[in-house]
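Severity: low
Component: inverse-folding endpoint
Summary: output formatting inconsistent between runs
Steps to reproduce: submit the following structure tokens with default settings.
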């Protein structure tokens, strides 16, 4: 074919790749565009930023004898036989051999001319996945080429990028579209990182980086590219993390630009609140209360994260914040992730506020009919001052008369989308509700700075006095009888115990069944003990009745599913047995264990496991046995599971990261924060452009 003259297509002149639809690429029609739209690709810019998730080295030929099942490789061999097989499905088979073994290429769709070219004695080069066939290894519909001469490997080919795909769009198409987009628009992609930053970080320009990752040169450092640590990839990862960080900063700025009710805190109700408690607040509780009250005094919406280890006394702090708001004749709402915890808060707050003449209401998804209408009515008229509930609080048009504060307890249990949905609740166009979110899952500092940049953070860094660390032992399930004996001794001494039966990755029904069976077995083994059972399938009334009997000491041993995981507070309970401990995560075990050690008795936690233990499970159990420090446990958790899991955002899509990987790239975070500040101050225009390039408004932050 004669070389075509180098024409510049008319479309090349088009500038903004973000405004250019994918259909300008030759061969991309409406149908393909619709498929691309499914994975969020609309414009040429989207194609440029649809980055390879990995690479394949097609320059290396694998001897057939050494090819492993399931791997994608290049093989080269001489055609020994070509023929059509008439089985369940007609297929064209072409067997090759390279002296180390034979392999069959199988095509279900083929033309006569394809068949004609696969002549015995010619060379076939295939790239595809190795599968097991009836006679030889097989490749089904590989990418292939036929030649008369033995094909020489084209070393200039470099690595082949593999893109995140969608049904109906092949890798070949994605590669071609990426190349076309580079050709079409690379010169028009805006560099949004200032030159000074690029050179300070030693990063290539955006254009160089994009070109490099889509078309790695033949001398590229293969290992670095595969690992995602090439400077070109790191530059893109950095820019992506920066964009997410900036979107949160922007959200914070926009929130701060809005108004909120300024509360005064010199009306005396707070003194009454503190006076009614039977303990003085710790120094740490006083400190965080002061920070919160300081926020509430200002006419700017508070959005504060209160972190404090399990048992550090966050509820009282929430109580103080609520008191301040009530004293200013505003309402408050407290939201908990489980019914059980919400019920407990309801009791606690009722006790606190009963003596302060404030009315506490209760709302969960189980409150229905007339009762629900009544509560909703009372919220609307302001008759209820504080309402406690589950996420049902913020569904189905619950209206407040004058909501001044929302408290979200154990916020790691709520998805980010729920956190976002909350922001508008109780807010009017000119006035935003203050928010306090609480968590026992400490977030490592760099992560918090980068990904909670829209929040202020307060930490409770000491436990109430007199607490002794929970002593933790790890035992095999074959020693369960000894554990039962231990429970018997403890309960005879007037102590109370939990026996937790979690089943992981299975249905709640199975968990309930396991707990029910365990209760029966324990009742038989320990006839003199008063044993109760709680699980998630019980109706609220009987469930609350059992909890009440446990709280008041009428039940010695509470057999439970993981419904008791968060928040439950019964200080006299000092022994906890956890079944299947090897299958639970560190954070969850720490939370569960936090149910004991709340009183002054030496508490004990027994972790029962079933061997064999994998290396991670072993580390988890050992970590828990050796430390009770929530921060240390969170650090270990981060190491074992990675930040996405720890932040609990993998599912909720806070960080829909395309190229950055928080585990691999967490070293970039301090810089992200630093450059983020600089950019926001000096180059606000770039900030917006970066956010729309990488984040869009899908996180809902930008327009909050
Ligand atoms: P968490 O931070 O896990 O939510 P809670 O608020 O449930 O902790 O408090 C744990 C227990 O500690 C509760 O029984 C609470 O009454 C008690 N507590 C809280 N603050 C203090 C304090 N300053 N002195 C003594 N006990 C306290
Ligand atoms: Mg709590």
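Observed output (run 2 of 3):
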């Amino acid at each position: 074919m004669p070389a075509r003259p180098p024409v510049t297509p008319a479309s090349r002149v088009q500038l903004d790749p973000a405004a250019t639809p994918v259909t300008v690429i030759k061969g991309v029609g409406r149908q393909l565009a619709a498929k691309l739209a499914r994975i969020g690709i609309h414009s040429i810019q989207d194609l440029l930023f649809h980055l390879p998730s990995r690479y394949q080295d097609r320059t290396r030929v694998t001897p057939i004898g050494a090819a492993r099942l399931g791997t994608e490789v290049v093989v080269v061999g001489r055609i020994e036989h070509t023929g059509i097989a008439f089985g369940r499905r007609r297929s064209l088979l072409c067997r090759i051999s390279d002296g180390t073994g034979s392999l069959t290429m199988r095509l279900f769709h083929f033309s006569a001319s394809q068949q004609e070219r696969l002549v015995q004695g010619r060379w076939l080069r295939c790239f595809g996945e190795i599968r097991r066939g009836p006679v030889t290894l097989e490749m089904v519909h590989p990418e292939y080429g036929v030649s008369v001469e033995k094909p020489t490997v084209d070393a200039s080919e470099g690595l082949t990028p593999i893109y995140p795909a969608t049904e109906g769009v092949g890798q070949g198409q994605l590669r071609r579209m990426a190349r076309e987009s580079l050709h079409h628009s690379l010169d028009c992609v805006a560099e949004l990182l200032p030159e000074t930053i690029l050179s300070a970080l030693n990063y290539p320009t955006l254009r160089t980086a994009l070109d490099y990752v889509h078309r790695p040169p033949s001398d590229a450092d293969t290992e670095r590219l595969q690992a995602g640590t090439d400077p070109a990839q790191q530059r893109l990862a950095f820019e992506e993390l920066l964009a997410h960080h900036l979107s949160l900063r922007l959200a914070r700025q926009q929130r701060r630009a809005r108004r909120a009710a300024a509360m005064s805190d010199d009306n005396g109700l707070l003194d009454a609140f503190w006076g009614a408690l039977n303990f003085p607040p710790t120094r740490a509780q006083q400190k965080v209360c002061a920070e919160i009250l300081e926020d509430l005094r200002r006419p700017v919406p508070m959005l504060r994260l209160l972190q404090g280890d399990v048992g550090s006394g966050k509820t009282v702090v929430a109580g103080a914040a609520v008191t301040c708001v009530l004293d200013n004749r505003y309402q408050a709402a407290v939201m908990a992730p489980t019914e059980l915890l919400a019920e407990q808060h309801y009791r606690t707050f009722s006790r606190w506020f009963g003596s302060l003449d404030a009315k506490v209401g209760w709302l969960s998804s189980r409150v229905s009919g007339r009762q629900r209408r009544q509560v909703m009515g009372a919220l609307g008229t302001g008759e209820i001052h504080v309402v406690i509930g589950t996420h049902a609080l913020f569904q189905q048009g619950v209206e407040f008369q004058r909501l001044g504060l929302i408290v979200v307890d154990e916020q790691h249990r709520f998805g980010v989308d729920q956190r976002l949905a909350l922001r508008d609740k109780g807010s009017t166009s000119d006035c935003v509700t203050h928010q306090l979110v609480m968590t026992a899952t400490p977030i490592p500092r760099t992560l918090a700075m980068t990904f909670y940049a829209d929040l202020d953070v307060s930490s409770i860094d000491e436990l109430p006095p007199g607490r002794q660390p929970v002593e933790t032992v790890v035992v095999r399930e074959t020693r369960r009888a000894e554990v039962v004996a231990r429970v018997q001794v403890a309960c005879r001494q007037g102590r109370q115990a939990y026996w937790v039966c979690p089943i992981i990755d299975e249905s709640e029904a199975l968990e309930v069944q396991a707990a029910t069976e365990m209760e029966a077995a324990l009742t038989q083994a320990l006839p003199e003990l008063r044993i109760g059972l709680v699980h998630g399938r019980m109706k609220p009334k009987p469930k609350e009745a059992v909890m009440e009997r446990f709280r008041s000491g009428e039940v010695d041993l509470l057999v439970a599913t993981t419904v008791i995981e968060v928040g439950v507070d019964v200080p006299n309970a000092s022994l906890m047995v956890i079944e299947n401990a090897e299958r639970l995560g560190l954070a969850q075990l720490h939370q569960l264990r936090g149910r004991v050690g709340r009183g002054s008795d030496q508490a004990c936690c027994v972790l029962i496991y079933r061997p064999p233990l994998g290396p991670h499970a072993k580390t988890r159990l050992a970590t828990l046995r050796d430390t009770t420090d929530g921060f240390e446990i969170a650090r270990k958790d981060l190491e074992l599971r990675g930040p996405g899991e720890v932040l609990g955002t993998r599912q909720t899509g806070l960080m829909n990261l395309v190229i950055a990987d928080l585990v691999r790239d967490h070293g970039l975070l301090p810089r992200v924060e630093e450059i983020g500040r600089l950019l926001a101050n000096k180059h606000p225009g770039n900030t917006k452009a970066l956010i729309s390039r990488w984040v869009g408004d899908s996180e809902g932050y930008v327009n909050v």
